[in-house]
Amino acid sequence: MPDTEVMRSTRRSVISVLSAATVLGAVLTGCGTESSPSTPQGDPNAPLEVWTRSQESAAKVYTRIFEEFTKKTGVKVEYKAVFNDFDKQIQQRASAKDLPDLVITDTGSLGVFTQQGLVGEVDRASFAGGGDVSDRAWGNAKTSDGKYHAVPWSTQANVTLIRKDWREKLGKPVPKTHEELLDLAKAFTTQDPDGNGQADTYGILAPATTDRGYTLWWASNFLWQGGGDVLKDNGGGKFSVAIDSPESQKSVEWIRGLFCDSKVMNPNALTLTTTDAHPLFETGKVGIYTTGPYMFSRFDKNLGKDKYEVIASPKGPGGDTVLGEGEDMYIMAASPNPSGQKKLVEYMLTPEAQQMGMKVQSGETPVVRLPVNKNVSVKDVLKDPRWDTTQAVYESSARPFPAVPNFQPLRQKTSETLSKIFTCGPDAKAELGKLAGELKKELSTQGISQ
């Protein structure tokens, strides 16, 4: 087996002399396309370095999957779970021309990785099992030009978690509209639902930091449900700005009211990361949390399955749309072992691997939320009605962020403006107008403005 450091040194040398086009050709070789004389053939015995954007609770699940892959194929996997500064570390490795072989992270990286040439176009028909992946899941790996630059691994939809014991104690119904949701949030904030005689509970939990654009990640559900949007898809890969529309303004002002009028939001929401937000729900500080289904296992253990319920998000004036994204497998450029990359991706698409990613032990986090393999049934595998609810929401109401070449700068600019508005000082209409101008410039820069 070749020494890992030797292989990495070889990769650095290869990338340093290849043009961007040849680097992409190396990726395509790993995806079943014909190689050219200038494309390095690699070493099928080289270990695969795999990164996932994961904390320890998910890393344990991935470790079992990769160990099973090695047993079946003999291809060794050097696995690294990275959570803090994931994007920064990937860019450092890109600068060093020493990329991992495979990266599993959210769909938000698709545009950046594609623009930087860290991944190339993939042929979905070239993968064994690719035909078993749903078209909707493949959509998570498709860029605005209609081409695929990743392979889907998992998908999901946001759902709303509510402290059932608090709601029943206060005699409130399961909320079905924004009005009923706000009424419940006010009750959780003012009516002492935990019965400790102190004003120390809040209605709605938000990990609304601007870091990686999480303000918009959280607010998008309410924005869409109110009839607003960030961009309008005009077809043909062209977009226009929608954040300053009357519907968007009304939605943003409604969200602003949660912070500034009813004051049902958790303290420090605008600086809170997801890591810091989770404990507020499970320790009884906040009673309503719109998040992904990956939190079920943690809250079952730390809070108690009987104390909270999972519902489809209540409808707003514009409907019940929620954020539905997922994780992709990114086949990184200039791997020493392109055939190994392909083998691993194909294994990850199998029902066996998909189910391993869904089934977790106590305290672990599932790494497949909803399977991308259409032959795998959530109902049969998990036998948990909460996951059935998640599946139904995904199929009926979930949508991703727009498939622009790179949505991250648009997401970041929008998050910063929303965060400013939610501090209760600035005028929402004026700030959204300024934001619209910035987004128009970004669309023009990316060549997709209309």
UniProtKB/TrEMBL annotation:
InterPro entries: Bact_solute-bd_prot1 (IPR050490), SBP (IPR006059)
PANTHER family named among the record's database cross-references: ARABINOSE-BINDING PROTEIN-RELATED (PTHR43649), POLYGALACTURONAN_RHAMNOGALACTURONAN-BINDING PROTEIN YTCQ (PTHR43649:SF33)
Keywords: Cell membrane, Lipoprotein, Membrane, Palmitate, Signal, Sugar transport, Transport
Superkingdom in the source lineage: Bacteria
SUPFAM superfamilies: Periplasmic binding protein-like II
Nuclease is among the record's keywords: no
Protein name listed in UniProt: Multiple sugar transport system substrate-binding protein
Keyword ATP-binding in annotation: no
Pfam families in alphabetical order: SBP_bac_1 (PF01547)
